[in-house]
Specification:
There is one protein chain. By secondary structure, the chain is mainly alpha-helical. The protein has 3 domains: 125 residues, Rossmann fold (3-Layer(aba) Sandwich), CATH 3.40.50.620; 135 residues, Serine Threonine Protein Phosphatase 5, Tetratricopeptide repeat, CATH 1.25.40; 171 residues, DNA Cyclobutane Dipyrimidine Photolyase, subunit A, domain 3, CATH 1.10.579.10. It is built from 23 helices and 7 strands. The strands form 2 sheets. Strands 3-2-1-4-5 form a 5-stranded parallel beta sheet, sandwiched between helices. It has a two-stranded antiparallel sheet with strand order 6-7. The longest helix is centred in the middle third of the chain and has 25 residues. The radius of gyration is 24 Å and the shape is globular. The termini are far apart.
Length: 532
């Protein structure tokens, strides 16, 4: 029932819905906001932590950031109707909580920024419609490209490629441009980036700035530890930025201490054999979580990196490589997500149906690279893009795991995971489940790639040069088996020509031996399905 008069506390004109990944005080949701007549609604609900079995650190980051944002709004005299997770009346889902607050307050209209997940957007629409309530969904201007702009870019194109989209974005936003040409005469500098550390390793790496939990965050950590004790991961190392001020400090720390070496070593991996922290982050920014929760504006990040180049603090190759991740990939994957959802989530171009091995949840495996990458993920809720793409993602691709299972694991395990960014990167780029919408070829490689880019193979009982035999590397075995299983499909892709040419050199006995060994690897990884 609508109120006769508008009061922000008991009967608001507009009820602004703020989701856990929309913590932006400059959001379009607040355009025209009047603290005397309008109110904010936020809710912590168990469903958002259990629809995938979320890492404890991921849950804690969302809740801690939400509570800090709530308090910041209240300091501006905003009325915030906030449902805490441990409130006895908590109904457990966004839809149920929204229904309850609408019935209690009777606002004239609901306002929300475009959610980061199709499922959530549909749930809010259905809840509002069920009560005959107007729901205004406003564009999310945090991003540099709107859904409509991406749709215009995609219209009429047979293929969508990030490189062409990225060039458009560089021109449109005048980033690293010299008139109408890219600074330095090239659009990217991959040839100068992506080196390995070599046998000497990275040396001493300065760890990123840390943010010890304050009272609000400590309360969240205690709640998560108690309520989600059976969820994966832990909270011992929780030190993520949970406010805009902390996020800006994290940005400045990265620009000063790690950006100069970022590009050169962005694909390198290294294990220090314990005390993982600095070698887990290496020269990466650790800013994706803050940006994805909207604590940090990507324009500010891009500007800071470009300024570092202009001042001579960081080389162009590093700066361009970093900016491409934000202005290129980040915007591109969001466009892909909304352009192709909801059907995108169910794509399975390679007809992969193996279950995800149990060791993805425990880290207990003989394969040292997977033990390192998964162990780090469990410990911190973090792994950089090559650990995700070319270790955990590569193995599931080669094994033939159902891409939806891989997607749900990534969405659950990483603190920066929001579906708009995680799904295209996982199902599309990593697993090639979309058949080439996201990436022009499958990211398939043998164990030799991991050996070249890390020290993970040192001391591992498996030999990345061997595809068969007792000490054969499962990655290498499965790599050749992957090419064999999908030879006809891959033959249509010119970028796979060299790999298929190498495959053609294998004689029939070698092919059979590889396939037999691959069957053994699958049986060891997924024993519950071995007899099916």
């Amino acid at each position: 029932m609508l109120c006769a008069t508008n009061n922000a506390l008991s009967c608001p004109r507009h009820l602004v819905l703020i989701l856990g990944d929309q913590l932006d005080a400059k959001s379009a949701a607040f355009d025209g906001f009047d603290p005397k007549h309008d109110a904010v609604w936020m809710a912590e609900v168990a469903e958002e932590s259990t629809h995938v079995w979320s890492h404890q650190a991921r849950i804690a980051l969302f809740l801690a950031a939400m509570r800090h944002f709530r308090d910041a709004l209240r300091q501006r005299s905003f009325i915030v109707h906030y449902r805490a997770l441990n409130d006895a009346l908590n109904a457990g889902s966004l839809a149920k909580e929204l229904t309850a607050i609408i019935r209690r307050l009777g606002p004239q209209k609901l306002i929300v920024i475009q959610p980061g997940e199709w499922r959530v957007e549909q749930a809010l629409k259905n809840a509002a419609q069920g009560l005959g309530m107007e729901l205004e969904i406003r564009p999310d201007r945090h991003f540099l490209s709107s859904r409509e702009e991406f749709a215009a870019h995609a219209k009429g194109r047979k293929q969508l490629r990030m490189e062409f989209f990225y060039r458009e974005m560089r021109r449109k936003h005048d980033v690293l441009m010299d008139g109408d040409q890219p600074v330095g005469g090239a659009w990217n500098f991959d040839s100068e980036n992506r080196e390995s550390f070599g046998k000497g390793g990275p040396g001493e790496v300065r760890p990123p700035v840390s943010f010890p939990p304050d009272e609000i965050t400590r309360e969240v950590l205690a709640l998560v530890k108690k309520r989600f004790a059976k969820h994966p991961g832990g909270l011992a190392h929780f030190d993520w930025p949970v406010t805009p001020d902390q996020a800006r400090l994290a940005l400045l720390d990265f620009i000063k201490h790690r950006l100069p070496s970022f590009g050169k070593y962005e694909d390198a991996m290294w294990s220090s054999g314990g005390g993982r922290c600095a070698h887990s982050y290496l020269f990466h920014s650790r800013l994706s979580a803050a940006m994805n929760l909207k604590l940090l504006d990507p324009r500010e990040v891009i500007a800071a990196a470009a300024e570092a180049y202009r001042k001579g603090h960081a080389p162009l190759a590093s700066v361009e490589g970093f900016i491409r991740q934000i202005l290129g990939w980040r915007e591109f994957v969001r466009g892909i997500y909304w352009h192709f959802m909801p059907g995108y989530r169910e794509l399975n171009a390679l007809n992969a149906h193996e279950p995800l091995p149990d060791f993805y949840w425990t880290g207990k495996t003989e394969m040292n690279c997977l033990r390192e990458a998964i162990g780090q993920t469990l410990e911190f809720g973090y792994a950089h893009h090559i650990q995700r793409l070319m270790v955990t993602g590569l193995f599931s691709l080669l094994l033939g795991v159902k891409p939806q299972a891989v997607h749900e694991w990534y969405l659950a395990m990483y603190v920066d995971a929001v579906e708009w960014v995680e799904l295209p990167n996982t199902l599309g780029m990593s697993q090639h489940g979309d058949g080439g919408i996201m990436a022009s070829k499958p990211y398939a490689a043998s164990g030799k790639y991991i050996q070249r880019m890390s020290n993970y193979c040192d001391g591992c009982r498996f030999d990345p040069a061997k595809s068969t035999g007792e000490n054969a590397c499962p990655f290498t075995t499965l790599y050749w088996d992957f090419l064999l299983r999908h030879e006809q499909f891959l033959a249509k892709n010119q970028r796979m020509a060299m790999q298929l040419k190498n495959l053609a050199r294998l004689d029939a006995p070698k092919r059979k031996a590889i396939q037999q060994q691959a069957t053994q690897v699958r049986a060891a990884c997924c024993p519950s399905t071995a007899a099916v």
